Every structure is written in structure tokens, then in C-alpha cells.
Amino acid sequence: MLGLRRSATTLFDHSQSLLRNLSFHGLRVQGIRVGNAEVPNNKPLKTGLQEVYGIGRRKSHQVLCGLGITNKLARDLTGKELIDLREEVGMHQHGDELRRRVGSEIQRLVEVDCYRGSRHRHGMPCRGQRTKTNARTKKGKRVAIAGKKKAPRK
């Protein structure tokens, strides 16, 4: 069984190195797939990893420092570095898993019927921002009130 695993991983390494330089009838592979997101080939890894949902500047820096990878372009990764990068990103919560967790936490707040949950339910800001004049992102476009007239200017 161990020999089969070893041969499968070496086959995976070879396929990854082939895929990096492979072109399909003039189409070039655009990027590498890490954490259910496409990391562009032409960007440095530090900024390219930020395409993954849940990984920002700080976490991408931590991942690269943990692996000892310099901030090089994504297309310059070796097969070993790519596998290590995927494993390291997999240790952090990201992508659909993180979206589900955030959604379930919001749903729990709504079901418990706490203040934050009611604000989420009504589509209002829940962190204490003012809503008399702002909060247009959450409230949507302004709606004119029929019959309301402006005060005359003096």
C-alpha cells in the first residue's frame, strides 16, 4: 500500500509540473488552483493568495513565511512548493467552508432573536453605525415619500 501511495504522489508531482507548462491548442493555463480559487500566474504569490476567500494580506504573509517561500510569481512555483502551499492553505479556514460558517453564525443570531440578529434580519447595520443619514449600502437606494414637501427656503 505504501508503494502505491508513493507512486501516486510522484505521478501527481509529474502531472503538476506538466500542467504548469502545458498549452492546449494555443490556450495557456492561466493560474494555479489553491483553496477552490484560481491564483493568477502573473501576480506575486503574496497578492495572488488574496484571491482565496478568507485569506488577506496578513494570512498570505504568514503562509509564505511558514513555508519559507519567497514572494515570487505563481508560475515559478515548483511541484513540491505547490503541494506544500495547498496543504498550508488547507490548514486555515477559507472558501466555501468559511462562507458556510459565517452564514450559520448569522442564522443562529437571527434564530436566537438577539439585537444583532434582528438587525441582520431587517438589513440594517449591526455595529452601532448611524442610520439617519448613512447606511445606504445596507438599506438600498433612497425611496421618495409621496406627499412630503420640502420646507420653503427663506
From TrEMBL:
Give the start-end ranges of region Disordered.
120-154
Q: Which GO terms describe its molecular function?
A: RNA binding; structural constituent of ribosome
GO BP terms: translation
Q: Does the keyword Ribonucleoprotein apply?
A: yes
Is Amino-acid biosynthesis one of the keywords UniProt gives this record? no
InterPro entries per the record? Rbsml_uS13_C, Ribosomal_uS13, Ribosomal_uS13-like_H2TH, Ribosomal_uS13_CS
Q: In the UniProt record, which is one GO cellular component term?
A: small ribosomal subunit
Keywords noted in UniProt? Ribonucleoprotein, Ribosomal protein
Entry superkingdom: Eukaryota
Q: Which family does it belong to?
A: Belongs to the universal ribosomal protein uS13 family.
Q: What is this protein called?
A: Small ribosomal subunit protein S13, mitochondrial
Q: Which organism is it from?
A: Microthlaspi erraticum
